[in-house]
Structures are given as C-alpha cells and as structure tokens.
Automatic annotation (TrEMBL):
The active site is at residues 209, 243. PANTHER family: ALDEHYDE DEHYDROGENASE, ALDEHYDE DEHYDROGENASE TYPE III, ISOFORM Q. Belongs to the aldehyde dehydrogenase family. This is Aldehyde dehydrogenase. Pfam families: Aldedh. GO terms for molecular function: aldehyde dehydrogenase (NAD+) activity. Residues 4-425 form the Aldehyde dehydrogenase domain. GO terms for biological process: aldehyde metabolic process. It comes from Blautia hydrogenotrophica (strain DSM 10507 / JCM 14656 / S5a33). Keywords: NAD, Oxidoreductase. The keyword Oxidoreductase applies. InterPro entries: Ald_DH/histidinol_DH, Ald_DH_C, Ald_DH_CS_CYS, Ald_DH_CS_GLU, Ald_DH_N, Aldehyde_DH_dom, Aldehyde_DH_NAD(P).
Amino acid sequence: MKIGQVVEEQREFFRTGKTLSYTFRDEQLQRLYAAVSTREKKILEALHKDLHKSDQEAYMTEIGLVLAEITHMRKNLKNWMKVRIEEAPVSQFPGKTYQIKEPYGVVLVMAPWNYPFLLAMQPLVGAIAAGNCCVVKPAAASEATSTVIGELLSETFARQYVAVVSGGEENREELLNQKFDYIFFTGGMKAGRQVMKRAAENLTPVTLELGGKSPCIIEESADLSLAAKRIVFGKFVNSGQTCVAPDYLLVQKTVKREFLRQVRKWIKKTWGEKPLEHPDYPKMIDEKQYERVMGLLLGESILVGGYGRKKTLQIAPTLLDGVTWASPIMQDEIFGPILPVLEFSSMEEVIHTLQEKDKPLALYLFTKNDKAKRKILKRLSYGGGCINDTLVHLSVPKLPFGGVGGSGIGNYHGRASFETFTHTKGILEKENWLDIPVRYLPSKYWKEWVMRKILK
C-alpha cells in the first residue's frame, strides 16, 4: 500500500461531499459501534497479549470508553452540527450572521502503545463525527492490538474513507511527509515536538496529547484510607503506563506516616503478598521499557516492591520514600509502577513549588478542605484532574481532555472531539434591498459622524 496514494484517494472521496451529511456520519458511527462490539473478544485477547490486561481492565479503560464515546457522539451530533445564528451588529444592517461547522478534510490520527485501542479509536470517533476522512496509525509496539485495529477498520470502512497504516518508523515518517488537513497525535513530548515541526512545514494544525509529571497532593484533612485506595488504583492500573497516572505524591507531613501505612495496605489488598503472581497484574510493553523503569530504582529508598521479573516484563508496585526534587526519578515522567513520595508543610509551599514546574497533564488533590481546594483550582495550571479521585475524569464525555504548555496542545472527548476536528466558518449574508452609503467614498462629515455613533 502506497501511503501517498491512500491520502490522495481519501482527498478525492472527501471532495464528493458524501461525508458531510448527518445521516452519513451517524451511519458510520453505528457501523463502528457494531464492529467494536462484535470483535470484543479479539480486542480483549490482543490487549492481554500486548500488556497483560485483564478483561475487566481492558473493557473499563479501553473498549467501554470507546463505546461510550460513540453513544455520546450519536446522541448529540445533530445538535452540534446545526448552523448557529448570531446577532448581526447595527453596522451591518440589513444582514444576518451565522456559523457553519465544516470538517477539515483528510486527517491523521497517530496512536501510542499504552492504551493502543482506546487512543486510536477515540480520536477516530471525533474525526468521523466531524465529517472527515481519516488515516489511523496504530503503535507498532502494541503489535497484537494494532493488527486487530487494522482488521476491524479495513473490514468496516472503505480505504478511501478510513484507512490504517501499520508498521514502524519508516511508515511514520512517510505519513508525516504527506499533507494532511489535521494531525492528532498522542505520545511522548520528544515525538510530539517532531510531529509539530513536520506539521509546521505544511501549516497543518495539530492536537498534541502528551504527558508529564502529574502530581497527586494529599492534604491533611483527606480521607486517608479512601485516598490511598484510589491512588493505588490510578497509579498501578496498566502497570503505571498511563499518561495521566499520579507520577508522584505530595503528602502533608502531619499525615504522612499514616497515609503510607494505608498505601501499603491497599497495595497488598489489591495485588496480594506476591503481586507478580496475581493473574491480573499487567506488564510493561517491552524489554526496553522494563529496563528503563527498573533503572529508575537505583539508589532509591524502597518502602514497598522494588523488584521485577524480566521473563514476564512485570515490575511490582513500588513505593519510594526519601525522595527530593533533585532525585533522578523526579526529572522525567516515570511511566511505570513506581510511586515516589515527597512531603510538604503547607499548601502555599505546594503551590509555589508546582508553579515553578512544567504544567502537567493532570493534577489530583485529596482534601476535605474547601479553602485548599479553591487555592489549587485557582492558582495552578494543568490539563485537568480530580478532587478526591484519580484518572476517572477521563471517563466523563462532557469534560474536555488535553494538556497545557508542555503537556499538550488542544483537547478532545465528547463535544471537544467534534470541535477539534471541525472548522467553524463565519458568514455574513447581506440583503440587496438597501445599501447604506456610509462606507463609500467620497468622505463626508456626516458619514464619519454616523460611523462614530455605531462603531464604539
């Protein structure tokens, strides 16, 4: 398959106008929903093979979210597509103004390996709903899931409408050589910069869903047991290979000792005494990632875990104490099942410290103190997050998801996905029965007087 030919085929199909109607878009979303539903078993098997995800985890964090996104999109799409009438200013009388939602055209979705099904399909749902043609590039590292995605999409859609380009670096580079109308990329910061640089050559707009070090703050009024339970879930699901996982803990000194006891308790309750023997404990994607994360443990003070099993690419849930901002593990996103613990004395200290850091993709705060909550929400900038929970803000279709600063550009989910893949066209439509002469030469005092009355 020649990538350039596929892109050109899609451009020709888009120009026919077939993707523009609500009926066509809704039919394609129905087909996608049916295709995912009927292939659920294959998708679960692929996710287990790639990342050792249990059926429950795979459905909760991937398949179920895709189906819910399609359902939400179909429920609201007709309303979102409507032409929006705006009030015309007096200066443009007689006339009317309105906004038209139109698709960009041919778009590229580039997915990562950590949630290989969700992060390929969820942006695709938005692209279809907005009326685009789409090329999907699954991650090469998650080979089993990428194969299933290729089969699913090729059997559901014609290539000139939705196409899949698999493979590694060579195909990725060839895709970036093409002129797309929009590029949606999910992945690391380094690769994101490369994509943005290549997109800039064609002035192609981009959404970059990146990552960073997402803090999790435990203020002294928090329900410590419930906080520990929800943090253990959010950190160790998918073995920590989640872009919005709590990257590190900031725990108020007054409750640190008890809180760490609760974290130990919930790690044991969740995964048992021997987590690597637990049938549902996930693995690292490949040996390279396994070795990278194990290397982060060198010289650290380990409270829990700290060991792995290379044969199965699994690393035990790990809790680190005695960590400082200068520690090697605090310099880059961890992206693995290691949770460093730092301490603080006051919320002001936390705010001042985090204001000096890069803006994260997520932030989590556990507290019963409304004043502390308001301070964090008002004074810290980050992509999104939760109060008294972790991760689950991603499951709410009505909430936009995306980064800010180094953690990403743009957002999606629900209506935000529709808007991301849509260009809003502003139109002023004038009447012919009256043509007010104020704007035309020759200049007159009375014309300027009228202008000053209406343009202010």
